[in-house]
Amino acid sequence: MLAEAYFVKGDPMHPRFVAATVALSTALFVSSVATAAQITDVQPASASTDGSTTITITGTGFGAAGNLVTVGASPCAVTSETTEQIECTAPEGSGASRPIRVVDPGGEASPPFPFKYTPPTSNMLTSLDGIPSAGAVAITIMGTNFGPASVSREWTTVVGLACTAGTDPHRQMVCPLPPGQGHGIPVSVRVDGQDSSNLGSLSYDPPTITTVTPTHGRAGGGFAITIRGENFGTANAAVTVGGASCPIVEHDHTALACTLPPSSGAPSDVRVTVAGQASNSAPFSYEPVLSKCDAGKLNAATSYAKCLGKLEAKAAQKGVDPTDAAVTKCDDKFTESCAKAESKFSDCSQPGTCAGLQQTTSSRGWYGWIRGTVN
Predict the structure, then answer these.
(1) Mean pLDDT by 10 residues, the chain (375 residues)
(2) pTM of the model
(3) Distance between CA atoms of 148 and 110, rounded to whole angstroms?
């Protein structure tokens, strides 16, 4: 047809020549489109990251042999092929957008067909025995589809915390455990932009008290006590003494300081709670709350013991015993002070005991102890 048109009147621009040329070009283009590779289905729709998945590609326009298949930018090793179906073994990889293309023997590439690698899953968490709140241990997460060793992976429980591939990178990843606190913390991971479902949970160890300093204090509270132990967490710990709050003024993983509350009359054990986890109890004792009368009598006895102690110390320096007159002066002062307390206040727990208290104070027990501490 082209030759015939060309020689019509010897004019290549003759309408019949032009029409013939357009018709031929159109036929060649339609033939090219019709024979280019087209993918209509891929099964399965995703592949394991370890490169073990056989993919079946269905379509038209494939070569009877010599087709090239790519998954993303990596070749998919062809194991069988016809003009309508190709089987290949997916390469190792990861990610949610890794389209498949078929390039026929003539170099014509099919349009990309959506494909992805399977998101990560897990069936076990392993760790060192016990997870201290100070962290500094490694968690090994075991599962599937964690991708090649080179791809990014992170523990999404702690945003931005990078993990590394384990011995088998597709089935293990190792994540450093940061400082933390709490029980039943959800754990999930992200591999090459794909998030796993919840992989389970982990728990930090509960707080443990080893010592409380001091072990006793005045009933009115208001001074600091120091609690030492382990796993006191990163923040928002709570301390109670006898069930009453002891406001924290210093806090780290192994020590707490708090301001002792007044005695509530309840047993005054000390406890620490961190993120819902409670410690063991540690003993603490409040000093007795004296009545006004008892406090006055105690002050009188204390002054009496000091008076006697000073007399003996001075006499010992001279190598003699205290004089009776000097001792009587101490006795009289005590009797006056003790009687005044009993007469002024009506809340004495043991009224009428000034004489007995005087005898106890001057005995070798209390008096001897006071004497050794007074210069």
Answers:
(1) 40 47 42 70 96 96 95 96 97 96 94 96 71 86 91 76 90 88 84 81 90 91 95 94 94 95 87 95 87 87 90 88 90 92 86 87 52 35
(2) 0.60
(3) 27
